[in-house]
Design a protein that fits this description.
single chain; 336 residues; Deoxyribonuclease I, Chain A; six-stranded mixed β-sheet; 8 helices; 23% strand; elongated
Length: 336
């Protein structure tokens, strides 16, 4: 009789353990869902607090995470949670989906150009990786960030047909360079914001074509004060670009994604457009952690720039992937 009792107790203990594990599982799912819900909402409040601005950058991760949560709730037949999760999933989908839809735009069918951009990472010793990709793509323009004198000397781009250039080599990760196969009519180093951070403004003129290139690298938002300096630098640059009457192509690591509320304001003021539209998310940083990859490297363009191709380049042993864009010029009133 005692054995039977012990046996029955053992049998009864199994579903109790299963219940405990199931409760732990659903508690984990609920906490994860609540965290993703909160991140989805506070990402819109980046102007309130710099941490909220950082949270705004991971819309793709929120979308993927919520898709898993939605699937789990659906399997568990938790209809109320399915509906709530679907709402937050849709919010992130609305923010991500436009980058996969190509806007309609007329283009002249004229000459196409290629611009290569790379944040090389100053201490990166593997210069040959970038040099190899430059040789393979043979772009018309090359914009580089975080270059020191060693980088510039080793690449020797002036000896490879890029006879026109502007550069400021630095050892503090804020060196900038622009190389062109075409004459640069005006080429200057500007300093926007409160800190001594260089930005290249250069104008290329050939026949009836005139383009102004901007190469910039604002400070990374590592604290509230530094974020403020980034925003001041970019706001002053946006005001400057708004005063130009040229075709403008901006290349740079803006230390912000397209989902930052500050980024949206910069586009509005400068009247530039995000060239990623129609080409997907194309994340570029950090190369060492695919889970947190976000698109902080950009080509921003005026409405008369028609983008034919835009792609992420190979690993050059930087913490950023490089970018390559092929474009031509269209009617200034076009919608690209």
């Amino acid at each position: 009789m005692a054995c039977v009792i012990v046996h029955n107790k053992f049998q009864l203990s199994i579903p109790m353990k299963n219940t405990i594990l199931l409760n732990i599982f659903w508690a984990f799912i609920n906490v994860t869902a609540a965290t993703l819900f909160a991140c989805t909402l506070v990402g819109f409040l980046g102007t309130w607090w710099w941490i909220f601005d950082l949270i705004s950058h991971f819309r793709v991760q929120y979308l993927l995470g919520l898709s898993v949560i939605l699937f789990v709730y659906r399997l568990g037949k938790r209809l109320r949670f399915v509906i709530i999760t679907a709402i937050f999933f849709s919010i992130n989908l609305i923010l991500v989906l436009p980058f996969f839809i190509r806007p309609t735009a007329a283009h002249s069918g004229g000459r196409t150009y290629q611009i290569l951009y790379a944040n090389v990472r100053t201490e990166n010793p593997h210069h040959h990786l970038l040099r190899k990709w430059i040789e393979q793509t043979d772009p018309d323009f090359i914009a580089l960030l975080e270059v020191n004198q060693v980088w510039l000397d080793d690449l020797s781009l002036a000896d490879q047909g890029y006879h026109f250039y502007e550069a400021e080599a630095r050892s503090d990760n804020f060196g900038v360079a622009l190389y062109s196969r075409y004459p640069l009519e005006v080429s200057e180093i500007h300093r926007f914001g409160r800190w001594d951070i260089p930005t290249i403004i250069a104008t290329m003129s050939e026949d009836d074509t005139q383009m102004t290139f901007v190469v910039t690298h604002p400070v990374p938002p590592k604290s509230e004060k530094i974020t403020w300096h980034r925003n001041i630098q970019m706001s002053e640059l946006a005001d400057y670009i708004a005063g130009l009457d040229d075709t403008v192509i901006l290349a740079g690591d803006l230390n912000a994604t397209s989902w930052s509320p500050f980024f949206g304001e910069w586009l509005k003021v400068s009247q530039l457009r995000d060239s990623r539209r129609g080409f997907g998310i194309q994340p570029t940083w950090p190369t060492y952690n695919w889970l947190f990859l976000v698109p902080i490297d950009h080509f921003l363009i005026t409405s008369d720039v028609y983008v034919h191709e835009r792609e992420v380049g190979p690993d050059i042993d930087s913490d950023h992937y490089p970018l390559l864009m092929e474009f031509s010029l269209s009617d200034k009133d076009g919608d690209n």
